Amino acid sequence: MDIVKIIAIGLIATGALGLTYGGFTYTQTTHVAGLGPIRFSVDGNRTVSIPLWASGTAVALGGILLLFGGKLI
């Protein structure tokens, strides 16, 4: 398979996931204090939103590369 097709399929898949889920959440651990061998930390959930325009652009770019990739490069 051509590298351009692999990139195009990756863009389409990434854009489709962005359109489906709209973002993702991860846990960030923050070190708060420590007293000798005892350590205190706080776990906080962070949410990253993926803009709708970015997901749509990734799908469109992937489609264009898939259709015309060999002719453009």
Describe the protein:
This protein has one domain (3-72). Helix 1 packs antiparallel against helix 2. It is elongated and about 65 Å long. The two termini are 15 Å apart. The chain is an alpha+beta fold. It contains 2 helices and 2 strands, in the order αββα. A two-stranded antiparallel sheet has the order 1-2.
Low-pLDDT stretches are none
- In percent, how much strand structure appears in the residues? 25-35%
Mean pLDDT score, rounded? 89
Task: Tell me the domain tally.
Answer: 1
SS summary, helix count? 2
Considering the chains and any ligands shown, give keywords for the structure.
2 strands; two-stranded antiparallel ribbon; 73 residues; alpha+beta
Task: Give the helix/strand layout.
Elements: H1 3-21, E1 23-35, E2 38-49, H2 52-72
Antiparallel strand pairs: 1-2
Helix pairs in contact: 1-2
Q: Could you give a quick summary of the protein structure above?
A:
The protein is an alpha+beta fold and 73 residues long. The protein is built from two helices and two strands, in the order H-E-E-H.
